[in-house]
Specification:
The chain has no helices and 11 strands. The radius of gyration is 13 Å and the shape is globular. The protein has strands at residues 4-7, 10-12, 18-24, 33-39, 46-51, 58-60, 68-73, 78-83, 92-101, 106-107, 118-122.
Length: 124
């Protein structure tokens, strides 16, 4: 099974930027749709973005459209989430996972792989 590992989280001031990375343990990550999710304390996990493996389909949650960009580098076996103009409400643990990505939303099953998460804190 694919193992995923997130990196790139941290503490940033409002308006700042971070780039999260999701690296896969096997090269066949390149053939999987990948999604980013987040969970804030006391809130349910929500889908933030996803990218398909080969046909360029992407999805963004409405509140991050125009600020976040998802991309993938198949040479590095990595999917990125560039987050700009960060807001305090973006504070959460961010997870990447294998998904089925559509332009409406990503979906997951019990067989999908998840990373361990990376903390993003937006605060002045």
């Amino acid at each position: 099974q694919v193992q995923l590992a997130e990196s790139g989280g941290g503490l940033v001031q409002p308006g700042g930027s971070l780039r999260l990375a999701c690296e896969g343990s096997e090269f066949f990550l390149n053939y999987r749709d990948i999604g980013w999710f987040r969970q804030a304390p006391g809130k349910e996990r929500e889908a933030v973005s996803c990218i398909s493996s080969s046909d360029g389909i992407t999805y963004y949650k409405d509140s991050v459209k125009g600020r976040f960009t998802i991309s993938r580098d198949n040479v590095k076996n990595t999917v990125y989430l560039q987050m700009n103009d960060l807001k305090p409400e973006d504070t959460a643990v961010y997870y990447c996972a294998t998904v089925y990505c559509t332009s409406f939303a990503p979906s997951t099953t019990d067989n999908d792989a998840w990373g361990q998460g990376t903390q993003v804190t937006v605060s002045s």
